[in-house]
Amino acid sequence: MRTVGVEEELLLVHPDSGDPKALAAAVLARAAQDDPGQEVFEKELFGQMLEFATHPQSDMTALGEEIVRCRKEAARHAGEIGCAVAALATSPLPVSPSLTVNERYEWLAERYGVGTRDQLVCGCHVHVSVESDEEGVAVLDRIRPWLPVLTAISANSPFWQGRDSGYASYRSRVWERWPSAGPTELFETPERYHRRVADMVDTGVILDEKMVYFDARLSARYPTVEIRVSDVSLCARTPVLIATLARGLVETAARDWRAGRPPLEHSVNLLRMASWQAAREGVDGKLLDPVTLRPRPAAEVLRALLEHTADALADHGDTAGAEQGVEELLRSGNGARVQRGLMERTGSLRDVVTECVRLTQD
């Protein structure tokens, strides 16, 4: 059974005002004081962000429990120094990001200028185990058109610098500003994949292999495919759903490859449009159907994803959880819908943030 691990980035905020606070170093110091050997929490590009990573899990219930535990631990460490954590992919309130003191991050700031300053965004990355680079590249080629659906499910960034952005996932639009980000063409072989990565580094436009920000890539650290298209989700159940569907996609793609079924040959141009549409609409409008790349109601596309991965979900014992998760999402909405509902009821972005602090640990 394939294992799955999740990385989440959280926003550090003032517990009363909701303003982002650059206190990541203090939170990490508190975490290290409580557990000198801790490797769960890490710094990120800006001081207003905190990242954690789960262990690889084969059971989705265990994965969900670990995500909740990590969120609660992050909240406890933050609370001890007078701040809070919010699973928000962008700050609803205006913010001036504070760059983390780090040689790599300083290089990014100098190289990309104001583009770096805009990257105070919080994502969720899912790692799914693969047996080899050959299998991994075959998977990357076959999951491409389905990745925007995961963006739509996770969408949790409707507000930007104090205003409604008009998008469900504005984080994904900001992230696309990196020169190496976005969907990819077909690679076909590991040799072509690694050659493409090496060529990108050799241009000097990016610093190194870690900066290859494909929507999905081979992990440089683990024997996994790393899927990088999701916002951090407000509800802790949503990353479990995304991880479940991601594992289903990877397993389905691997089986298709072994059976000799070729990947869909969609162009990168159309895949970018599918990503844009998912970021704009989330689960409340139309998405581009991953097979036809024509508009289709989001609910139908989500159910098509369940159908596409049905055999893999069943073999992993994930069918009921995935189906229930999708139906609950369609009924209750993703983080973007929740945030906009809070804003409509309260009229205050500060109230939106403080309520999201509470929802982060539910």
UniProtKB/TrEMBL annotation:
PANTHER family with a match to the protein in the record: GLUTAMATE--CYSTEINE LIGASE 2-RELATED
SUPFAM superfamilies in UniProt: Glutamine synthetase/guanido kinase
Keywords, ordered alphabetically: ATP-binding, Ligase, Nucleotide-binding
Protein name: Putative glutamate--cysteine ligase 2
Organism: Streptomyces pyxinicus
EC number(s) from the headed UniProt entry: 6.3.2.2
Pfam families cross-referenced by the UniProt entry: GCS2 (PF04107)
Top-level EC class: ligase
Role played: ATP-dependent carboxylate-amine ligase which exhibits weak glutamate--cysteine ligase activity.
Family: Belongs to the glutamate--cysteine ligase type 2 family. YbdK subfamily.
Substrates-to-products reaction catalysed: L-cysteine + L-glutamate + ATP = gamma-L-glutamyl-L-cysteine + ADP + phosphate + H(+)
Keyword ATP-binding: yes
Gene Ontology MF terms in the entry: ligase activity
